[in-house]
Amino acid sequence: MSRRLTVLTATLLVFVAVAFLFLVFGGRGGGGDGGSLFGPKVAIVELEGLIADTDDLVRELRQHRENPNIKAVVIRINSPGGVVGPTQEVYDALLRLRKAHKPVVASLGAVAASGGYYVAVGADQIYANAGSLTGSIGVIMQMANVDSLMKKIGVEYVVVKAGAYKDIGNISRPMTPEERRVLQTLLDDVHGQFIDAVAAGRKLPREQVVQFADGRVFSGTQALSLKMIDAIGGLEDAVNAAAKLANLPTPPAIERPRRKFSILDLMRNELGLPAPGSLLRPTLPVFKTPLYLMD
């Protein structure tokens, strides 16, 4: 009886080990229909939605940079923009990959505008669909003024502060000309950083970038004519381009995007509830998005 139990336990352990390996590596290796778990690969990472919390993505990019089997990276971008700091962290992570001699290709999905485009210019090459929305090179900060409403309903808003500009953007009063000047100087500085990144990444004269860095949105074909992207093509084209840059055969073996299973996400999907990030409205400067405005 004990021998049977030992055999059964060993079989179960083997099954669990195989299942674990399949969950960890299955679907993440191989070009097309599959491939080896090891050997040179092109990794695909995804940037989806509002750019606000990028810690996991930056960590994933660092792991690909340190993994000797990963020879190139494709970043698939579907984002209308987001908060400045996290956007720049992803951009810097792409530059580090390139410094480690690992080519990076950006693949623009439905929307890769504002902060999404900022990230893309950190790549060696950019591919977009003909109808992808991109560009929107601008920075925006919006604040409400409910002074009249508060007076109507009899609400008095009291502020105690140390520092002349500590309550800049206070919703209970109009903004002063000096406060507006301070904020405009801030946004102009960040906008200048965006323009510099585009000029450097696309190897364009800064004055040429300034001509289209006014917040306008462009289609993929328009962006190509402005040299904002390198070619019209989808994700497969971007993967093959990355393989060529890394001197790999096409189609290459692929490291698939890492996805975390979350019971909370599953429940939200079943109930039709928005993701937590979509409920956040940053008060920090954000890269302008063509789809909605964030305050």
How does this model look, in words?
By secondary structure, this protein is α/β, with parallel strands linked by helices. Helix content is 42%, strand content 15%. The chain is built from 10 helices and 10 strands. The strands form 2 sheets. Strands 1, 2, 3, 4, 5, 7, 8 and 9 form an 8-stranded mixed β-sheet that branches. The longest helix is centred in the middle third of the chain and has 26 residues, at 177-202. The protein is globular. The model is unreliable at 21-35, 276-283 and 289-295 (pLDDT under 50).
What key phrases describe this protein's structure?
alpha/beta; 42% helix; two-stranded antiparallel ribbon; 295 residues; 8-stranded mixed beta sheet
Summed up:
Helix content is 42%, strand content 15%.
Helix content: 40-55%
If you average the pLDDT, what whole number results? 82
Q: What is the radius of gyration computed over CA atoms, rounded to a whole number of angstroms?
A: 24 Å
Helix/strand-derived category reads alpha/beta
Largest sheet: 8 strands, mixed
Q: Count the DSSP helices.
A: 10
Low-confidence stretches are 21-35, 276-283, 289-295
Overall 3D geometry?
Answer: globular
Order of helices and strands: HEHEHEHEEEHHHEHEHEHE
What assembly state would you assign to the polypeptide chains in this entry?
Answer: single chain
Query: Would you report the number of β strands?
Result: 10
β content, as a range? 15-25%
End-to-end distance: 69 Å
Topology overview:
Elements: H1 2-25, E1 41-48, H2 55-66, E2 70-79, H3 84-99, E3 104-113, H4 115-120, E4 125-128, E5 133-135, E6 139-140, H5 147-152, H6 177-202, H7 206-212, E7 217-218, H8 220-225, E8 231-232, H9 235-245, E9 254-255, H10 263-271, E10 286-287
Parallel strand pairs: 1-2, 1-9, 2-3, 3-4, 3-5, 4-8
Antiparallel strand pairs: 5-7, 6-10
Helix pairs in contact: 2-3, 6-7
